[in-house]
Amino acid sequence: MEKKPCGCGNKKQENNKIVKTFSEPPIEKVPFKNAISMVQGYAMSMVSRGFSDKKTDKTSKQLRVLSCFGNKNTGGELPPCSHLKPSSTDGKFYCGGCGCGDRKQTWLNGNDTEYSKLDYPKVNCPLKMPGFTNYEPSSPLEAKEPQSRKNYIEKMNFDAILQTDVTEPEMPKEISEMFDKILEAQKNKNQP
Ligand code: SF4
Fold this sequence. Notes:
Elements: E1 11-14, E2 17-20, H1 33-50, H2 58-69, E3 84-86, E4 93-95, H3 149-154, H4 158-162, H5 173-190
Antiparallel strand pairs: 1-2, 3-4
Helix pairs in contact: 1-5
Bound molecules: iron/sulfur cluster (SF4).
């Protein structure tokens, strides 16, 4: 996008309304390492989920929802992440940046009874966005126009973050019991 001294190159017109535009740094591409870190990240999430009915705290989930979905749908100005992809299942979305595909276990949104990927106590984001386990603060460059989505969330008013609507489902009992058994077996194996 052309950057104009007046800053108006950072705004665009949508449905007769002037809207702010945002930058998004590219996902770091490290050959071979990505596949390994993807598997490690998935294993970390699965094991974190197994520690007796756990889910992330509400504020972390609110930050994750802002990171992935933005707040435009609730009247804010932050658009969804450019890596957010609609699932082939109606109404569901998954992350197209982490390579874990479109499956029930990888959907980023659920409802009051569906435990989604954003509910895991530990879960990574390829852009290291706020609310995720591997979060890293934005660089000073990201504060410059066009401001990055990450920098925008970091500067949001805390009350506005707390107003983000999220569901807080419990992990299904049968899955919780299955993971407890796996962890118990691991513990017994490590004992002398
Ligand atoms: S997990 Fe990260 S990269 Fe993926 S959609 Fe969410 S914010 Fe974007």
